[in-house]
Structures are given as structure tokens and as C-alpha cells.
Amino acid sequence: MSVWRVPGMPALLACAALGFTGFSLLLPAAPMWAVHIGADNLGAGVVNSVLMLCTVIAQLLVGKFLRRAGWGITLALGLILLGAPALFHPFAASLWQVLLLAALRGLGFGVLTVCGVRGIAALIPQERRGRAIGAYGLAIAAPQFVFTPLAPWLAEHMGYQLVFVLAAAPLLAVPLAFTRPAPHLADEPGTGRLAGISGLVLPISALVVITAAGGGILTFAPQLGGTATAFAALLAMTGTTALARWLIGGVADRHGPARFIAPMLGVGAVGLAVIATGINLGRLMGAALVIGGCVLVGISYGALQNLTLVHAFTATGRSGDQVGHGAVSVAWNVGFDAGTGLGSLAVGALATSFSFPTAFAVMTAACVGVGMMWVFHRHDGYGPGRDAAA
Predict the structure, then answer these.
(1) What's the pTM?
(2) Residues 6 or more apart from 343 whose CB is under 8 A from it?
(3) Which domains does the chain have, with CATH numbers?
């Protein structure tokens, strides 16, 4: 049976798609609004950093809430927290108000992301999980492909109010949270715990550095070369992210994910270096390099999202650590969102103190460093080419 036909998966994928529609629209638009009302680049970067900080907090707590309130209520609450604050953005006249709305959205996003990954783990057996994660990745990457690059254009040409109304899309998914059958999570060993996390350190490290790079691009694309360049760059990045995350799933199932992680970090490092080079060049050449670099980063960004998650499940299962699906979900999502928030903050701070090329050069070095760690790490037999599935 196709993973798309597994009972419970269509509703889960629809919730993810509508949730990420709202998230994708405001990821660039909320920092733009902060600048619009008087914030500097650092203030703009703090918006998404607060978003991701509160996302991480929610991810660490959602396991307990799931066990007490149940799947439907928990997911519905997350969708409401993610979608409703969008409607209040037109009334936010200071950076602090924008940050408060970002905090609420972060709590909702944290709930959605943990429920999504845990739902896949509960609904799909291990041997088909790469394809399922690919399907989930497509459901969340397609809205990013359409709406992340479109948001800055809509804000500048059609008005911020339209963006904020569209960003309330997660509210449309609330009824789907109660669709049956819902994933059964009560008997997962280790749910909500982060015990036995040692097997996750390297894949989560790889995830953090590439999502930091992605967070920097998604937050500051409008400042890298004008509206047209930002639109093309975000379209290129989100498009290749969607394709890479979808296509790598079957490859990971057949050959194991670990052997591809270091090469994908290398692809991301090259893309970031190309972006850093293109920022200060002339309009046409600079724009071409920024867009080309975003293509490479998108390939790395999408592939590593899938590879690191599949590897996290197989590595913990093989190592004997009784890490439940919930704990793996929390660890992976914390890595993803902490990386995105740190990237936004780091790029904003470095751009304010030095320049955007310096900021992306630092991101390049981070990818190279973790890639080298991955290549040379052999502790406890855990390293490249040592998948449980391989």
C-alpha cells in the first residue's frame, strides 16, 4: 500500500501542509514587518529566533500534553496557536509586539512538528519510513516552495494585510486534527524522554548546521539583492528542497542514509560560499550567484532533513538505547528549529556587526566542520556507512 493511502496519513499530511502554509508566509514576512515598523537587521533576526526558541520549548513539553489531552486536542491547539496570531500582526506597532506573536506561533509550530514526525513513526513501519518521511517532506515543502518566496512580493505589492490573512491557514486544519484513525502513541517506549540520546548527536549536529544556513537565507533573502532576487532565490531554494527531500527517501531506504550526509553537507557548504561571493558583485552576476547558491543549499537542506531523521531512527534502534519514537521526534525537531533560530540570530548579528558575506562565510565553515566530524567519527562503530538499514 502506498504511504499516501495508510489510514490517518492523508489527514496528517493535510494538517502539515496547512500548518506550514502559515509558517512559510510569515517566516520572511514577520521580520520584514519588524523592519517596516523600525527594527534593524538584528531585530529582524530576533523575530525568527524567538519563534524557534518557543518552538523548541513546546517540543520539549508536548509529550506530556499529548498523554494528558490526547492527539486531537493537542494537534488542534497547536494549529490554533500557529494560525491565530497571524491575524493580529497588522496591530503590532513595536518589535516587542511582533516578538510576542512570534512566541505564540512558535509554541504552535512546536506542537505541529512533533505531532507530524511522531505520527509518521506510529503509522508507518520502519522499512517504509524513508518514503513516508519523503511524503511528509513533500507536504511541508510544497507550501514553502510556493509561499516563502511569494510572501515578500505579496507584502510589497499587495500589502502586508493579505499576507497576514493567508498566514491564518492553519486554522483551516483544526477539524482535521480530530479525523480518525489518529496515530496511537500511548505504548511507545521512552515517549517524551531524551534518554539514550548519544546515538543522535552527529545526525542532529548535521541537521543544526544546515538548518542554520537555511534559516539565515529564509529570514534575510529580501536583504540579499532586492525583491526580484529574493523571490527567485527563495523559489530556487524551496523548490530544490522539496524535490531533494522527496527523492532522497527511496535512496535512504535502499542504501542507508549515513553515507550521504557528509556529501550533502559539502554541497551546502559550496552553495553558501557561492552566496557569500555573489552578494557584493554586480546586479546580474551577483543575483545569478545568489540564486545558484540557493539551489545548492536547497538540495542539501532538503536531503539532510530526510537523511538525518531516518538515520536518527535507525541509529537509536540499532544501538540498543530504548529511545522511543517520541524522544527521537523531539530531538530531531529541536535540532531543526534550534538550528533555524540560531541561523537567523547569527546571520543578523554578523551582518549588523560585519556584513552578509561574512555571515555566510561563517555558515560555510560550520557546514565544513560538521562534515569533517562526520567523516572521521568512528566512536562505538557509529559513523558514515554504518546504517542499521544498510
Answers:
(1) 0.75
(2) 211, 212, 213, 214, 215, 216, 219, 363
(3) 3-381 (1.20.1250.20)
